[in-house]
Each structure stands twice: as structure tokens, then as C-alpha cells.
Write the C-alpha cells for this entry.
Amino acid sequence: MVADAIVSVEDVHLRFGGVVSLAGVSLTQERGEILSVIGPNGAGKTSLFNCLTGVYHPQMGRIIFRPTPEHEVSLIGRKPHRVNRIGIARTFQTSRLFNALTAFENVKIGVESRQRTGPIGAMLHLPRTMREEKESDTRTVELLDFVGLRRRGDEIASGLPYGDQRRLEIARALGTEPKLLLLDEPAAGTNPSEKLALEQLIRRVNRELGVSVLLIEHDMRLVMSVADRVTVLNFGQVIASGTPGEVQRNPAVVEAYLGRVETEESGGEG
Ligand SMILES: Nc1ncnc2c1ncn2[C@@H]1O[C@H](COP(=O)(O)OP(=O)(O)OP(=O)(O)O)[C@@H](O)[C@H]1O
Ligand SMILES: [Mg+2]
């Protein structure tokens, strides 16, 4: 039992017709921790994220989120935007940026999802809206700066180098002020120097912003260097959990990855 768990997944079962995606998954993430979820293609990693964010509704099990140590919320049955409101943000396996918008606009959408004034207030140019507008512009610039994209704010998202797009998605997610950030293969498709920038960014999100990070990633070098703990899924079940070193030495893990331990390649869509 973890003293201060930010999220607890208990015996979650998820299936689609005859396909079993999650077959009794339990895991706990400690507040402040970087926890990585790894496993072969089709193991159920993205399904787990979808259960955590209200996209999928598991047939069985419990998922408890604690935005603060005193406050406990069940995530099952909640809508994605509600889950985001209570403090969980995510990025997707395949980029879901607004491609026709600028980097600045993409991040600002995240930031504004936090604000109280709706579109009507904005249309009427209520005084609070003007203040909020200024605040959200400032925050947006801060976040672009944080992810190393301050000078690219005016560029169209789809025109940015791929590594920049991936960091832009993180900035947009951070705009919603999460306590827990879920990253689904953030390094997929990036080159070695972009991977390094991502690794540093993930660490800074965790240490400087105090955000707990749940990371799905196929790049083992990145996982082993950045994660405090690692949980391994295979065929919808947790087959190992521990420090990066423990997991790497675990025979069940070696077997699940046999022949592909060195592969940095990811596959599939999510
Ligand atoms: N909406 C869905 N409908 C039917 N089957 C699904 C659905 N979502 C996931 N699955 C199935 O659940 C299993 C787990 O898929 P999931 O995407 O969670 O794997 P993953 O671990 O993220 O794999 P990858 O590393 O390739 O991204 C797969 O067999 C997949 O086909
Ligand atoms: Mg996936």
C-alpha cells in the first residue's frame, strides 16, 4: 500500500466483444512520481490511459484519483473533460494538435479550458474576460518558453519539426494545470536529439512543476533513465513492477520482450 497514491487502479477489466484489453490490472502511482508503463504492442497500455481519462469504461474494477491527499475521486464513468477538470491531462500516441492553428493558439486552448468565462462572456467583452485574456496570453507564452518553443509561437503547428510538435502537445496539456500528466509514447517518431530534449522536459515537468507523470514509452533507454518505477503489461495483465533495474532483470519481462528488447521502434495507433 502506497502512503500517498495519486492514482490507484484496482482489478480493472476491459473487453471489446471477444477481445480482452485489460484482464484485471492493478497499479498504484505515488504522488510526485514518474511511473512508466511498458509492454509489447497490444499489451493494453493505451487502453489503460483511455480508462483513466473517461474514454473507455471498464466492465469491472476501480480507479481512484487523489488530486490532493485528502480528496478522492472515482474516475470510472466520468467524461473526459470532467477528468481533465479534476487534474488529469494527457497527450496521445498519434499527435492531436490543431494542425491549422499556430503553436501559440494550440497552447492557449489548453490554458483557456481552465477559465471560467465562457464564449458568451468573451463575445460581450466583459471586463473579467479582458483580464483573463491577458492572463492566458501570459501563461501561454510561459508554457511555450517552458517547452523551448517561445520563438515558434507564431508558426503553424503542422509546420513544426516533429519533436517540437510533441513538446507542443505537452505544453497544451500543461495549460490545463494537471496534477497528473499521462504521456502516450511521446518519443515515438522523434530523432535522438529530440528524444534527449523530451527526456529533459519530462524531468522538468516533474521536478519544477511538481506534476506526477505516467509515461507509456517503447524507447527503453528513455524509460530506464527517466522513470522512478516501471510497470510492465503483457496481454492485458501486469507481469512486473519495480525500479527500472528490477524490471530489466525480471525473467518474465525479458521473455515478453524477447527479440525486441533493443527495439526503439513503436508501432500501432492510439
Ligand atoms: N476501441 C477498441 N475496440 C476494439 N479493440 C480495442 C479497442 N481499443 C483497444 N483494443 C484492443 O485492445 C488491445 C490493447 O490495445 P492497446 O491499444 O491498449 O495496446 P497498446 O499496449 O497501447 O499497444 P501499442 O504499443 O501498439 O500502442 C488490442 O488487442 C487492441 O486491438
Ligand atoms: Mg498504445
Notes: The longest strand covers residues 5-16. The radius of gyration is 19 Å. The pocket of magnesium ion (ligand 2) is lined by residues 45-46, 93, 268, 270 (CB under 6 Å).
